């Protein structure tokens, strides 16, 4: 789980955009004037005061020095000729140079800051590329989109108008997530017992009402952040509904879930799985088995703390981490047959998933895969069909997808949402 310090170091879009102090999130200088002090070495970090700059320096120093070195070499700042594709290429090239200068991989903060650095949305120049090295002009509403001149703003205005609100929502959600104003891993303990699952309610709003959280509105930023986490258990529950009868569902006492291709997203969502126990009240033990090469080292059978009500009823939520491929896991002694196999935001074409998928089809295990985009979902379906899978639901919009917009760093003005599309399969066609 991310520590407070880790979260602080992540830096938000508003900080990267120079709208908030990189250290304390203040939006104006100490003396009340609007524009923050810019680090004179890297020109990429902003502070409300000298003392904030000082406080951030031990953290900022290495990256700052590497950027300064890069800035001194004019040929690496070749013109992108106003082309987005060139700008994307140059960014990656710069990141390679920065990694070489640092003699290590960039941290997630560093690559995030670099990928999302301010640039003109029309000509793709950064303030470093401008003649006078003058600052870019931010949008007065979202503060995270820039143009180099009023002229370019006039050109970009109509396109940005339709996207500005999504940028604003993204920024609000980020504040909630990174400034620790609320514990966003929300697993409510109260529920309306007159409503018996299955099925799940028809949408997020009716779900929140059922869970006695009517103070939240589907469109509020806080609610969007909640859906990003709760999307995990609800997407699983909605898939279970398709594979098992009502009686089967209510008779599970030991539910085993495989999370394949798992990483940070699944680990951060571990607490929210208690929602499955609240909705399926007969489960005694919920076993979450995470399998993925990005996971930390192997951990077996760790008990997570449950809410007082579940604890009193002696119910258990256990997780195991297997930092390996599903292929290796499936032939290991650790293998436990699951009731459902889940792959969140998975690109089955990306890795060598073929033999794992063949195994899942052969064993007739119920599977659900989610995707960020329709295109990725369609590609997954094609790949699954080619391997002979019986598709139950193919690349359909997931009503339990996250409603929290995330910025696609490699494509300007593109947003994505976790678990937006889903595909269900079981056995051979
Ligand atoms: Zn500050
Ligand atoms: Zn600096
Ligand atoms: Zn421009
Ligand atoms: Zn805007
Ligand atoms: Zn509970």
Structural features:
single chain, 429 residues, alpha/beta, Rossmann fold, 2 domains, eight-stranded mixed beta sheet, 16 helices, 39% helix, globular, binds zinc ion, MYND-type domain-containing protein, zinc-finger, zinc, Znf_MYND, zinc ion binding
Please characterize this protein's 3D structure.
The structure is a single chain. Helix 3 (50-71) crosses helix 4 (84-102). The protein is α/β, with parallel strands linked by helices. The longest helix is centred in the middle third of the chain and has 23 residues, at 221-243. The protein has two domains: 4-178, no CATH class; 204-428, Rossmann fold. The radius of gyration is 24 Å and the shape is globular. It has an eight-stranded mixed β-sheet. It has 16 helices and 14 strands. It binds zinc ion (5 copies).
Question: What's the gist of this structure?
Answer:
The chain has 429 residues and is of the alpha/beta class.
Structural class: alpha/beta
By CATH, the topology of the largest domain is Rossmann fold
- Overall number of strands: 14
CATH architecture of the largest domain: 3-Layer(aba) Sandwich
The helix-strand sequence is HHEEHHHEEHHHHHEHHEEHEHEHEHEEEE
| Separation, N- and C-terminal Cα atoms | 40 Å
- Structurally, the number of domains stands at 2
Global mean pLDDT: 90
Shape: globular
Largest sheet: 8 strands, mixed
For the largest beta sheet, what order do the strands appear in spatially?
7-8-6-5-9-10-14-11
